[in-house]
TrEMBL record:
Residues 1-20 are annotated as: Disordered. It comes from the Bacteria. This is Phage head morphogenesis protein. Pfam families: Phage_Mu_F. InterPro entries: Phage_head_morphogenesis_dom. Residues 164-270 form the Phage head morphogenesis domain.
Length: 314
């Protein structure tokens, strides 16, 4: 029996998922929006009448009603920036999550079409798949997930910024010091948003790949396992790197990502591989290639990580 064509491995070894450009755009978008949030609170600071007091302190006129109104105004403005579009059309979901999901479906569609004539004949066009009920349902769930994520981010930022603002006012700090503390917190919030971008975009892409592969298994009877492909970059975690070149079931991959922080900031990709009843690849060329690549890269990787052999054996 003739072996099927080889699976399609990631072209960019540093960006196995192919989502890096999308993540970078999201990170810039987050930075722009969160800096706008910082301006909201600095503008709020400037709304409070103040005058110099003794010992280099400042006295702010803190009428409770005015304070509550200013903080409420700031809260509404923050939500307008971070929750733009609402649950059904959230900016982050529309501009980044939906394209990532579509890219994941496309990657699996192209990969399985090359390996399996049955898949190529049994599945509709990519456009039809993207418009299908399963894909639309997945997007709805992703959009709900991201809206809750963004609501949490917005609430955390409002809490932290309001705390810093009111603490500075209560302590009579110089307005410049309060503004500096607010800007410092904005830097922390941007890093928090970066983590969301790097985690949620690749999650949407992987989930699309898993679900399209599962449809091929259930509806077409294909036997599929996933080849783990790590970036093997200086920031790669050891437990991620050690999976490189190994095959796992979809359930095993999903379970692994559900543990601890495995899904956070992960750049790894999984590629669908046709296997026989025993889980052996029908075409092992890509497996051999991935393992050789791992052997080549491992020495450099372990030097960068300062990993000793006893740690690897543990």
């Amino acid at each position: 029996m003739k072996a099927p064509k080889s699976a399609i491995l990631p072209r960019n070894k540093q960006d196995p998922t192919g989502a890096d450009s999308l993540e970078r755009r999201a990170i810039k978008d987050f930075a722009r929006r969160i800096k706008a949030v910082g301006k909201v609170y600095i503008d709020a600071l400037n709304r409070f009448p103040k005058s110099p007091a003794v010992n280099r302190r400042y006295e702010y006129q803190l009428d409770p009603l005015i304070l509550a109104m200013i903080l409420e105004d700031a809260s509404l403005l923050v939500d307008a920036v971070l929750l733009e579009g609402g649950q059904n059309n959230l900016w982050f979901s529309e501009d980044y999550i939906a394209p990532a999901s579509a890219r994941g479906t496309s990657q699996t569609f192209v990969n399985l079409s090359q390996q399996s004539a049955a898949y190529a004949a049994g599945r509709e066009s990519l456009q039809a798949i993207l418009l299908s009920l399963p894909c639309q349902r997945r997007l709805s769930l992703l959009f709900a997930r991201e809206f809750e994520e963004m609501k949490g981010l917005s609430a955390d930022i409002k809490r932290d910024m309001a705390r810093i603002l009111t603490d500075g006012l209560g302590r009579g700090l110089h307005p410049d010091i309060v503004a500096r503390n607010l800007r410092k917190q904005i830097g922390i919030e941007i890093r928090r948003a970066n983590r969301i971008a790097r985690t949620e975009i690749t999650y949407a892409l992987r989930k699309a790949r898993w679900e399209e592969a599962e449809i091929a298994i259930v509806e077409l009877g294909l036997k599929i396992m996933l080849l783990h492909f790590s970036a093997l970059s200086p920031t790669t975690r050891v437990n991620h790197a050690l999976r490189h070149g190994h095959l796992y079931t979809i359930a095993e991959v999903q379970e692994w990502y559900s543990i601890g922080a495995n899904a956070i900031n992960c750049k790894c990709a999984q590629v669908e591989i046709l296997v026989d009843n025993k889980g052996k690849p029908l075409n092992s060329k890509v497996i051999d290639k991935a393992k050789k690549e791992f052997e080549t890269e491992w020495n450099r990787f372990t030097v960068n990580k300062s990993i000793c052999q006893c740690c690897l054996a543990a």
